[in-house]
Design a protein that fits this description.
Blueprint: H1 2-12, H2 16-23, H3 27-34, H4 58-75
């Protein structure tokens, strides 16, 4: 649920400004920032620098790096 996603994001986000930013969003904006998947395009990963799983911030970078590491480790095993 959206409430669970928001709670999880707030636990993971180290930036207090981003935690406050995401608490004050309307439901449709909150959904656009938390629900869905990153897509890798010809320009790599691109997004606004702001709060949310689908925006560029420490949380999303950590998830991208983790996923890339898993992919590379599986590719060479």
């Amino acid at each position: 649920s959206m409430k669970d996603l928001l709670s999880r994001y707030l636990r993971e986000e180290p930036n207090p400004d981003y935690r406050e930013q995401i608490k004050n969003l309307d439901p449709s904006e909150l959904s656009s920032r938390l629900e869905g998947q990153w897509r890798f395009g010809t320009a790599g990963f691109r997004a606004k620098m702001e709060a949310g799983y689908l925006r560029m911030n420490r949380v999303s970078i950590a998830k991208i790096i983790y996923s890339l590491g898993k992919y590379l480790s599986n590719a060479f095993l």
